[in-house]
Amino acid sequence: MTAHEISPFIVEKISLICEGYSLSKIFEMINYNISGGKNVRFDILSHVTNNSKLCVLEEDKFLVGFCMELFHASFILSDDIVDNSLIRRNKPCFHLSRKMKALRDSRFLISLIHKLLKTLKNNSNKLRKIIDKCFYDTCLGQAIDTKHKERDEYTFKMYKTICELKTSSYSVYMPLACGYILGDRDCPYYLEQLTNLIGLIYQMNDDYLNFFPEKTNKTSNDLDEYKLTYFTAKLNEENTNEKEVQSFFNKKGVSEYIKKWIFSYFEKYQVEKKMFVEESRKMIQKEDENDLLFLYNILKRYELN
């Protein structure tokens, strides 16, 4: 079973929480937006709880894992509206049928998370505190990511900040921290530093995969949208006086010249990604290896085959 599958006990909890509302429409919306994902957060959570000496109840693990999928679904709902995306997980984006009502659905999913976590007997407040922190981080990261940027903002420093807030916080830190809480264990003191670096690697890889839509089944194009990515940061910092480059950062189109420059960074991307992987591995202390080396199995899932 995965967190994408709504277990009967979770169906029962949601039915009680949402009593008096159209349950069929609620479950239709939830199923549409959590199905087809990669299950990454639940896999991380499950791995950490399985390593715990404390016997973590399966129902508690699946409930928290399910809440993480609701968290992710909430953000991709709003993301797809902002990006005007058409395809998500091999099917039409939800907002295409729901229009702006999808924003309300997004907020509903976040409120449902808190309602569900309150039903836990142990550590409910600690878990909700982590969720709130990651929600704030992700909102802030997305705000920085989507705002209009002048050329001097296309820097690796700014890119790294976005990765830490928008990607690392809820995709890596949240499932790890919640896993430690469920297992009644303290998080490693360096956990946020490590997850920030893992999230950076993850996002760099995502930026690279954006050039291969036939592999990712996504319709958004980072270059056409002038997004700050690993590659546009490189373009800005290493080509300061090129007229074609200035034209790109003035949002006047993506020329073949720009594409050529961007593609020339692919080799450097591979080198730097490997460097960051090695740097992150050195952070992990021996007593934490059983919990944290699993993260590199997760990263390998996103390698382009």
Written overview of the protein:
The protein has 305 residues and is an all-alpha fold. The protein has one domain: Farnesyl Diphosphate Synthase (Orthogonal Bundle), CATH 1.10.600. The protein is 67% helix and 1% strand. Strands 1-2 form a two-stranded antiparallel ribbon. Strand 1 and strand 2 form a beta hairpin. Helix 3 packs across helix 8, helix 7 runs antiparallel to helix 8 and helix 8 crosses helix 9. The chain is globular and about 60 Å long. The two termini are 26 Å apart.
End-to-end separation in angstroms reads 26 Å
Poorly predicted residue ranges: none
Secondary structure tally: strands: 2
What is the radius of gyration computed over CA atoms, rounded to a whole number of angstroms? 20 Å
Q: Helicity, in percent?
A: 55-70%
The number of helical elements comes to: 16
Mean pLDDT: 93
Apparent shape = globular
CATH superfamily: Farnesyl Diphosphate Synthase
- Per CATH, the class reads Mainly Alpha
Enumerate the strands of the largest sheet in spatial order, edge to edge or round the barrel. 1-2
Question: What is the CATH architecture descriptor?
Answer: Orthogonal Bundle
Major sheet attributes: 2 strands, antiparallel
Write the element-wise H/E pattern from the N-terminal end onward.
HHHHEEHHHHHHHHHHHH
Which range does the strand content fall in?
Answer: under 5%
GO cellular component, one term: cytoplasm
Keywords: Magnesium, Metal-binding, Transferase
GO molecular function, one term: dimethylallyltranstransferase activity
Family: Belongs to the FPP/GGPP synthase family.
